[in-house]
Amino acid sequence: MGAAAEADSPMAVLGKSRGCSRALGEPIRYDGDFLRQTEVILVQVNPGEAFTIQREDGHCQCITGPAQVPMMSPNGSVPPIYVPTGYISQIIEENGVRRVLVIPQPDFLLGAPSALHHPLPPLPPHLPAFLPHPVVLHPSLPPVFSGGAGDLASQYMSHYHAGHVFSEIDSYPVQRCPPFAPRDDRAGKTYGRLQKKLKERLGGGSSLSPTGEGARSPSPSPQKAYSTPSPNKMCNGGQGAEAEKETGQDGETQTAWINEGCKGGENLGVDAESEDLDEESLALRAALSTISKPKVTDVQASMALLSWSAPVPPDNVDGGLEVQNELRKALSYEVIISCGDEKDGMYHVVYRGDELSSNLEELRPATDYNARVRAVCRHLRGDPSEGVTFTTLSCAPDTPSAPWRTGGTKSTITLQWKAPSDNGSRIDNYMLQWDEGKGTEEFEQCYYGPEEEYQVCDLMPSSRYCFRIAAKNEKGLSSFSEVAEMFTSGGVPSAPPAPELTKSGASWLSLRWQPSPAPPSGDTVKYILEVDEGAMGCHFQPRYDDYKSSCTIENLRQNAKYKVRVRAYNTEGKSDPSMVLEFTTCPGCPGGLAVRGAVLPTSFGVIWEPPNDDGGSVVIKYVLEKSADLSGNSWEPVYSGPAVEYQLEDLKPGATYQARVHCVSEAGRSEPSDILRVQTPAVPPGPCLPPRVVGKPKARDVQLRWGPPHEDGGSAVTCYTLEMGCTHDEAYREVYQGPELDCTVTGLLPATSYSFRLQASSKAGSGPYSDCCEVITGPCAPEAGRNPQAICRSPTCVLVSWESPPCNGAPVTEFRLERAVADGSMHVCYSGPGTMHELRGLQPATTYYFRVQAVNAMGAGPFSEATPCQTPSSVPAAVGSIQALSEPELLKDPGPDAVYCPSSCLGLRWEAPCEHGAEIISYIIDLGERQPIQVGRITRYIIQHLQPDTSYKIRIQALNSLGAGPFSPTVKMRTRPRPPQPPRLECIAFSHQTLRLKWSEGCIRAAQSEVLQYQLQMQDRNGRFICLYRGPCHTHKVQRLVESTSYNFRIQAFNDGGEGPFSDVYTFTTLCCPPAPPKAPRLERLDDYTCDVSWEAVPLMNGDHIMYTLQCMLGNTEFKQVYRGSATSYRATGLHPSNEYRFRVGAIRQCSSPPDLSGPYSSIVMLLPLCVEGAADAGIGGTEAGEAGCSLTDEQCAALILALFAVTSILIAVVIQHFVIK
Predict the structure, then answer these.
(1) What are the two backbone dihedrals, phi and then psi, of residue 907, each rounded to the nearest 5 degrees?
(2) Are 631 and 545 members of one domain?
(3) Which segments constitute the Fibronectin type-III domain (predicted)?
(4) Would you give the DSSP letter of residue 232?
(5) Which of 423, 705, 844, 901 has a CA that sits 20 to 30 A from residue 441's CA?
(6) Which 3-state string (H, E, C) describes 499-553?
């Protein structure tokens, strides 16, 4: 309602809805019966409360308590009263007068679920100014409002609100709404359309509730001071029902949204239907209200990231954890923000979704914002969270608008520009650039400073210059504005040509002149038209001053002469006047131009009246003009004389003509009279030209085309009738009727003569027939002939004959005979002029189909119907595709009595030939010199007892009850040779891990052409032989064997004849493995003559003992053994301090069977001599350094090298940085 957001008191709505809806502010009309049934009901307004009504004049009146407002009841009963949550209505009847009281509900004030427990604030300061007396709303009552449940009272509008229900907020301001501000018609219609859309969205329900209606109206006097916000007073900011429609929510959610009263701005009111919520819904709503304060991160100039935590669903929801999980999934959130620069402090919804963060974009730089988050679950909305305040960063100014010119001369231009938004940082300077008049896109700076105006000097006259501007603050330089083009001023314009008279009248003259050339600077050139009225005794006086090059001078004297001249001027000055011309005003135009008598198809008469004003001069003659152009651009004079009537002849029937008349006197020619438009009646159209043939006539159809008649009789031709007749028959018949100028006549006979004539028709009637057009259709392909006749002469020969069909105007030159078998395609088997053909080489016992086609010069005709013919049975056809059976097929199924051997058997298979109508009984296999073999009705056979490695020529013949068919083509096949014997296997090289085996061909190769291959196998631990090698080579190396182990081998040879037998098993044994070389020994000098040598032990090998031998070399002599034993250290004595010694150690494996195996020696370690020439300290240091260097391990050496490399890299980088880069 209009006063719901203004009056700080509860609201009561009285009356009953009458089922009608009206626009906001429309008064209610009542008849006499209604007024007789009305009853006065008093609405009690308590102290400190306010009540707003609408009077008869449309103005709103605010009544403050204590007061009693009399309201009219239509039926004498008190309808339902709708009050805010936490209040109840009470009706008191005293002495026959009913009073309606709205009082707080005690239980609601003491209950915890609602937040309406704030103390009453003081009365708003603007309310005491309205203290009128109570007014009875009769006969014009307030607007109708419908509630959300059932039929509501519509005759009364009372706003009765408690102050703490709609309290104002400091950090979250609320938009205030005036009590029904007056609306114009357009606003009323707009409201009606919005209310209708809202009803359709609610499923045809009632109008907005009073709370929702009140939230739509703007506030007449928003207060500047706000109290602490109430969390239960927030809803969708600035979106309303239309925003809910955009989010795509269902009808239930939209209804709950509207019931919250969110219309227009952000109204933070209590849910209108919170009274109807059960305990579970109230608990869920309280849980949604526990959402924590959001956090703002990543604040930029135009964006910020807002994040928050989800509220915890209540524990007392029916359904346990499953329902709580569903509620968590159904949670969504709304982010509302308020800008500190806005006057009303409105909150606006900027995000709706189920994410826990939102990226706020399109913010204003250097602006304070307050953001809150509200949780939504299904149709319930929680209270908004605590607001978080943040300020966006400053940035460079916005792009300024293009500068404009405020003044200038021939050599200067004065520019001015407007300061753009500084985006939080004061603009210090402006940068103005120009192109120096070069006309290029290269700009140079011409001004830099804080002023917003600048004058550019030393410019060329009538020249073009381009400028652009940018603003700068401490954050940076803005983008440059759009380029503005400006011109310097030029000289005085040249004198224009003398004016010309375009039209004249009794008291006016219309003049025009050629404009002066426009200067390149773009300055506007204006013109001054000066008139000299000689009779008035005045010189030239200006009568026109503007930029157009034409004007009309009015208020002139009749039949008077005037001298006229023109001047041009601009900002630089005026030009010389043009040549002076003299013009005279004309008399008035004749009147009463009308038609005299009847209008005939080729003539009509006109009459007119003399002019009312002759301008002081006698009319000499009249000039009558006619025009067939309806646009009136061309006129033709048809009469000139003193008469006032004339008969126009030689006109076209059905044409529209325009006529006008002038009068001529000594003063000149007058303006034309009003145009008279006359249309002559139409006549039937004239004869058309004979129709003509388009292209070459075809055999079955002819395309004809014609043109409209030369004389259409003044009416458009609407229909053409084409008639056709044969030459031998004079009767014509209609073949086409329509508006088109061509048609195609079908269904004609080839090589036949036809006659065509044409008739045109219009609304006036039908015209005469045209001359006849003779057309002879062309020839075409022959007709389809009769079915051909087929006679079988043998199983493979058929004689086919046929008759010649009608030729259709062209003789038959060729016949095409086609044949096909059942379910096959036709193909040509004969082409020629004959009428019979004998076909040979046909298949016996086969049904053939024959058809024939005739061909002439125009093409091939259709085929005749197909004639079937079946050839008699015959002997089988020749066997084809004889192939040898593969070895897998032979081994898989050799036959019941056959034993396959590759060297003495050949396997055959073939395809069964065509039986030619009689079933095949058997096959005969011919091997040349040997006796033929007859087999049964099979298609594969194994021939046995053949010679090895021998070639045979094989052919096969099929037999049926009619005899033996022809032999198949001869196929040559060869038996394989016998398999070879195994070679002898021997070991030619061996070690502890490998064995190299070799075998020779020996006497196993029978022929030079044979290609032998071998297969070498070795026995594994399980006693099975596995293949090691398969190929043509004679040697193979077996690797990755175990030392001192025996292995069994066997070999097999095979060729094209098959695999031969395996050889006997050969056994070969690997050698023992020598020990690995020990690591380098370590030296430790005990004194000048003694040194300890130690080394790491070598792992044992298969339980054999390991012995070590230590060798030493003095100087460049040979190594000598100084120790042999199982120990891993040795003390060398008797050393000389000045000599150099080298040591190495080797391992010896003591095998169980001699001999022992010696391994390779370790790397050499050197013991440096002591220095006796220098000081004792230096000698000791050198010795220690040498010993230390000798005692470094491999890991220590690698770490030392890595450290030296890192130090070197750092030093190189420092040198490059210091000497090269800097």
Answers:
(1) -100, 130
(2) no
(3) 290-395, 399-495, 496-588, 589-683, 687-780, 784-874, 887-978, 979-1076, 1077-1175
(4) G
(5) 423
(6) CEEEEECCCCEEEECCCCCCCCCCCCCEEEEEEECHHHCCCCEEEEEECCCEEEE
Q: Is 1031 exposed, middle or buried (0-12, 13-18, 19+ CB in 10 A)?
A: exposed
User: What percent of the residues of the chain are helix, what percent strand, and what percent coil, each to the nearest 5?
Assistant: 10, 35, 55
Q: What is the mean pLDDT of residues 962-989?
A: 89
Instruction: Kindly state the tokens that stand for 287.
Output: 């849980």
Same domain, 294 and 380: yes
pLDDT over 90 percentage in the chain: 32
Instruction: Looking at the structure, tell me whether residues 922 and 909 fall in a common domain.
Output: yes
Residues 831, 858, single domain; the answer is yes
Task: Please state the pTM of the whole predicted model.
Answer: 0.32
CATH number of residue 1023's parent domain:
2.60.40.10
State whether 306 and 327 are in the same domain: yes
pLDDT digits 0-9 by tens, 1138-1170 = 888 999 999 998 887 778 888 899 999 998 887
> Of 88-92, 810-814, 1192-1196, which range is least confident?
88-92
- Give the range with max mean pLDDT: 608-612, 822-826, 1063-1067: 1063-1067
- Looking at residues 208-235, what average pLDDT do you find? 34
Kindly list the distances between the CA atom of residue 797 and the CA atoms of 791, 793, 822, 838, 1146, in Å, as whole numbers in the listed order: 9, 5, 18, 7, 103
Q: 308 and 379, same structural domain?
A: yes
If one counts every other C-beta atom within 10 angstroms of the C-beta of residue 735, the result is 19
pLDDT in tens, 132-163: 333 333 333 333 333 333 333 333 333 333 33
CA 504 to chain centre: 65
Coil/strand/helix, residue 642: coil
Domain holding 422, by residue range, is 407-487
Co-location of 292 and 377 in the same domain: yes
Instruction: Say how far apart CA 156 and CA 711 lie, in whole Å.
Output: 80
Say if strands 464-473 and 476-477 run parallel, antiparallel, or are unpaired.
antiparallel
* Mean pLDDT rounded to a whole number for the chain: 76
User: How far is Cα 1000 from Cα 1012, in angstroms, rounded to an integer?
Assistant: 11
676 and 759 Cβ atoms separated by less than 8 Å: no
Structural domains in the chain (count): 9
3-class SS of residue 196: helix
Last residue of some domain: 1070, 1091, 1111?
A: 1070
User: What is the structure's pLDDT at 629?
Assistant: 84
pLDDT attached to residue 460: 86
1076 Cβ contact list (under 8 Å, min separation 6): 1098, 1147, 1159
In a domain, 495, yes or no: no
Residues in Cβ contact with 1213 at an 8 Å cutoff, skipping those fewer than 6 apart: none
In a domain, residue 234? The reply is no
Flag whether pLDDT at 729 surpasses 90. no
**Cα(819)–Cα(827) distance, rounded to whole angstroms?**
6
What's the pLDDT at 714? 83
Residue 1048 is predicted with a pLDDT of: 94
81, part of any domain: no
Asked if residue 892 and residue 958 are part of one domain, the reply reads yes
